[in-house]
Design brief:
The chain is α/β, with parallel strands linked by helices. The protein contains 14 helices and 20 strands. A five-stranded parallel sheet has the order 2-1-3-4-5, with helices on both faces. Strands 16-17-18-20-19 form a five-stranded mixed beta barrel. A hairpin with a 4-residue loop joins strand 19 and strand 20.
């Protein structure tokens, strides 16, 4: 008897959309194997915490979530607690010693095997033995592997032939086009966790979009560690410009949104493909991290300050109404007052439509961790608050300029603030990281495109009246 059919799984995914796509593939494998799902951990026999291990705050959140889930082993129905994702990939051995509450640690190289691990657990418990780390039960033949560091050599990418359950609302999806990263920025551990660049074949990406458009998906958010490097490893001529052209040829009414475009590799061909695309929204997420020449060199970004400014000007000229989003790090080792002021002036002059600011996190194993002149926490916080206050004023001014304009919105459904209010997003508002547009009038059209008129503006969000559907 397949006992997995009697078991419910609650999967909690933390961190970035790339991690969420991994979680969706885990859900697909579990569903195919007969497991059912619940969003309530107290109802689940299996709780999976898909962790993030990028910076200190995300590691802390992941550990707290694991401990919170572990309580359900005492108070709820939970029989098996699983930790997966980036934190597990990075610290599997250490976590195994410190967290006897966790029954399985599943790395990025083998999350597609989770269903088989759980089936074996539930169908043949006698094959499990206790290992030295607490009360954890693991397959005897795999115990050594579970407690060792995982290699990111085996990278698992989505494909239409692989099972996957979308965890996003039915009207939008994240489209992962590659895994890993071949850059070696001094502050970042992603290549150590996820390996070097590995791109999906172009036919696989195009087929996924075509099939999901047929299922009613209206928005595809292209994700990778660096979209602009797509295809370099395939050595068959594949590149992001050609991928955008092929995706643009897919029939249907939908948006394509590029996220995480590294400032390198912005050639004329890519900018032309972006300008000519019917489906690509006027939105670019380009994490720049800093603008000081010395800081950029220390970060090993490979993109000089002058080049960054040129790319931004070329994009603005080529794509009318372009919304620019970026992220910056304050408090990088050795960042002087003058270098921060240079960054401040750059943000002030450029007037990004969206901006994320991070306080530098000293991550072991990175080049920056060993640098002298680490910036005090209080100063990092002060710089963070100054930059965010500046951006709030810019965002409010830009949003006020939209009042009175007729625009297209993708309706999301009831607002998180109140079920009586519906919300949507403009083409220039990415899901989960940007603001939203609250809808007045008949907004009860989830997953539909609406024509609206903006009537009110706030620092991050807008209010609009619905004029028509379609």
């Amino acid at each position: 008897m397949n006992t997995s059919q009697e078991k419910k799984v609650c999967l909690i995914s933390l961190g970035c959309p790339k991690n969420l796509v991994d979680a969706e593939m885990m859900l697909g494998g579990l569903k195919q194997d007969g497991f059912s799902f619940t969003s309530r951990p107290e109802e689940a026999e299996v709780i999976v915490v898909n962790t993030c291990g990028f910076v200190a705050d995300s590691k802390k959140e992941s550990i707290e979530q694991i401990f919170e889930a572990a309580r359900h082993k005492q108070t709820g129905r939970c029989e098996v607690l699983v930790a997966s994702g980036c934190l597990t990939q990075r610290y599997s051995a250490e976590l195994a010693k410190e967290m006897p509450e966790v029954d399985l640690f599943v790395g990025l190289s083998e999350f597609d095997k989770l269903a088989a691990m759980l089936r074996e657990k539930f169908s043949a418990p006698k094959k499990f033995r206790r290992v030295r780390v607490g009360e954890r039960l693991l397959p005897e033949e795999a115990a050594a592997k579970r407690l060792s560091d995982f290699s990111p050599a085996r990278q698992i990418l989505p494909d239409p032939d692989l099972p996957r359950v979308l965890a996003t609302p039915g009207h939008f999806s994240y489209l992962k086009i590659s895994e890993g990263c071949s850059h070696r920025c001094s502050f970042c551990v992603i290549p150590q966790i996820r390996g070097d660049l590995k791109s999906r074949p172009m036919d696989s990406v195009v087929r996924e979009v075509r099939e999901l458009v047929g299922r009613g998906v209206k928005e595809f958010n292209l994700i990778a560690q660096d979209l602009n490097e797509y295809g370099k490893d395939l050595r068959d001529g594949s590149n992001l410009a050609e991928l955008l052209r092929r995706l643009d040829a897919v029939e249907g009414d939908f948006w394509l949104r590029p996220l995480y475009m590294y400032p390198l590799e912005f050639g004329a061909g890519l900018i032309e493909a972006m300008r000519e695309s019917r489906h690509l929204v006027p939105y670019v997420d380009m994490p720049l991290q800093h603008i000081s020449e010395r800081v950029l060199r220390s970060m090993k970004r490979g993109s000089p300050s002058r080049y960054v400014r040129q790319v931004l000007e070329r994009l603005k000229a080529a794509v009318p109404g372009l919304a620019l989003r970026s992220t910056f790090i304050v408090g990088y080792p050795g960042e002087t007052d003058a270098e921060f002021e240079e960054l401040y002036r750059f943000v002030e002059e450029t007037e990004f439509d969206r901006l994320g600011v991070f306080q530098y996190s000293r991550e072991e194993g990175t080049g920056a961790a060993a640098l002298p002149d680490q910036v005090p926490a209080a100063l990092k916080r002060e710089r963070f608050e100054r930059l965010m206050e500046l951006q709030q004023g810019i965002s409010l001014r830009k949003n006020r300029a939209l009042v009175g304009r007729r625009l297209r919105v993708l309706c999301e459904g009831p607002s998180e603030e109140s079920e009586l209010v519906y919300q949507g997003r403009l083409a220039t508002q990415a899901p989960e990281i940007d603001g939203v547009t609250y809808l007045s009038g008949d907004g009860a059209h989830p997953g539909k495109f609406l024509e609206v008129r903006v009537v009110e503006a706030h620092e991050y969000d807008l209010v609009a009246e619905v004029l028509s559907v379609g």
